[in-house]
Amino acid sequence: MRCRFLSSLLLSVVLASLVGCGWHLQGRPRLSEAMAVTYIDTDDRYTDFNRALREALRASGAILAQDRRDATAIVRVHEDTSGQRVLAVSAHNTPVEYEVFYIVEYSVANQSEQLIEPQRIELTREYTYDQAAVLAKQKEQAILREALARDLAALVVRRLSAL
Fold first, then answer.
1. Residue 134 domain-assigned?
2. Please, are residues 19 and 58 in contact by the beta-carbon 8 Å criterion?
3. CA atoms within 13 A on the CB side of 19
4. How far is Cα 31 from Cα 59, in angstroms, rounded to an integer?
5. pLDDT for 5-30, tens place per residue?
6. Which residues span the domain enclosing 62?
7. Is 98 among the domain residues?
8. Tens of pLDDT along 43-98?
9. 21 part of a folded domain
């Protein structure tokens, strides 16, 4: 009984100190009024980055416009590419390590002026390759590419929240 009381007391003290110091979970960045209704101008609406950006904007409170004339901000995606490069090869000249990359270039404007000049962001991740597990490594590459797209979308939304 005494042990239960002490653990409850300790937990209460820790929680009170966390609340007192102002600590809280970060959550999603909230977008300004300039980004309230956003139109995404892109050549390919079905890329991993485009899907992740749409989800991140909605989670941050933006309404996605279907027509650029209805938007308070227009996010133009100039480049949205991904791929992989060989990082290391074995003594038999077969790849043993790859790097997955994702490159995005974007700019933001409203109906009358440029808010953010074109910016280019590139993220990379490495993974080892095993010829005995080709399907598993292809799946790992796809998972890494999707994770990079989500990370890039989060970076873009964080930048948009500063407007």
1. yes
2. no
3. 6
4. 10
5. 767 767 776 666 666 666 555 555 67
6. 29-161
7. yes
8. 999 999 999 999 999 988 888 989 888 888 999 999 999 999 998 888 888 888 98
9. no
